[in-house]
Amino acid sequence: MPENTLMSMTQTAEDAANKAAFEDQLIKTLPSLRQYAYALTRNRADADDLLQAAVSNALAARNSFTPGTNLKAWMSCILRNRFLSDTRRRRETVAVDDAPQELFARAASQEDSIALGELRRAMARLPVGHRLALVMITVQGMSYEEASAELRVPVGTVKCRVFRARKQLHAWLLGDGDVKALAVTKSARPLTSKRAGKISNITGNVLEEAQDALAC
Amino acid sequence: MVQSVRVRSSSADTAFDLWLQRGLQQVFADVAQEPIPDEILALINPAPKV
Fold first, then answer.
1. Distance (Å, rounded) from C-alpha A114 to C-alpha A56?
2. In this structure, is residue B27 part of a structural domain?
3. Which residues make Cβ contacts (< 8 Å) with residue B1, sequence separation at least 6?
4. Number of domains in chain B
């Protein structure tokens, strides 16, 4: 057999093995990525849509992944970028005040306690960077160093976000009177054009904050 | 007196952190445990063409 043919066959077999290994690893990371997507989108259906879009992007960019490196971190980066581009696209069509009512939406079940419902709603109100850091540390059991590497921010920033997220949840859930009163007043106020303009500005700021917090 | 208030506050914080951790794990465990939609799996492993 000519040497060229043999080399080509070896290369093809190696490519096939790499592809299979990539697909296996990708499937293993899906549950964790789905949690990640849920933390970003705050809605199960949107989380699955985001995950599907990120998987498509990842498969299209498979050649840019270096075998042996951290696939989950690579996928998380794709997921975040996709989330940011989708958010940018939706920016002018989503009414910010309407969003919280459906955030972390889930069909009610008997075992679903009131406290967990409150927790879901409170999580949905956290800034996206804080929510993501809290989920990585508290739910996914990552170390601050691992979360720092995955989010590409300093360890101190991750610690600060987790601390602030816990503190804010504590205030909302265990009765920081001022914060609760403010939240109620805000949601009860009718939407005027002036306020809509303000909200639009806030949306822009939130998006910029999200970009800073999530950029890869 | 001050020390006793501090201890009470610290143990309340610990209890909250513990509750928060369990609550978040419960909320997000459901998400991870649900079967991955077929459409996503099919993207990764398309069925062989017959």
1. 37
2. yes
3. none
4. 1
Q: How many residues does chain B have?
A: 50
* pLDDT tens track for A126-154: 999 999 999 999 999 999 999 999 888 99
Residues 15-34 of B with CB under 8 A from A: 16-17, 20-21, 23-29, 31-34
pLDDT tens, residue by residue, A48-105: 999 999 999 999 999 899 888 899 999 999 999 999 888 888 765 554 444 554 556 5
Q: What is the DSSP letter of A96?
A: T
Kindly report the CA angle at A167 between B11 and A82, in degrees rounded to 5?
135
Domain around B38: 2-44
Question: How far, in Å, CA of A162 to CA of A156, rounded?
Answer: 10
Can you give the pTM of this predicted structure?
Answer: 0.71
Q: 3-state SS of chain A: helix, strand, coil percent to 5?
A: 80, 0, 20
Q: Confirm whether B11 is domain-assigned.
A: yes
**Which of A87, A167, A165 lies closest to A131 in space, CA to CA?**
A165
The token pair at A46 is: 């949107």
Q: Using an 8 Å CB-CB cutoff, list residues of chain A that contact chain B.
A: 23, 26-27, 30-32, 34-35, 38-39, 44, 47-48, 51-52, 55-56, 59, 104, 115-116, 119-120, 123, 134-135, 138-139, 166, 169-170, 173-174
**Is B49 domain-assigned?**
no
pLDDT at site A128 = 92
Ordered by where they begin, the domains of chain A are 16-90 (1.10.1740.10), 112-216 (1.10.10.10)
Q: Which residues pair with A43 in a beta bridge?
A: A105
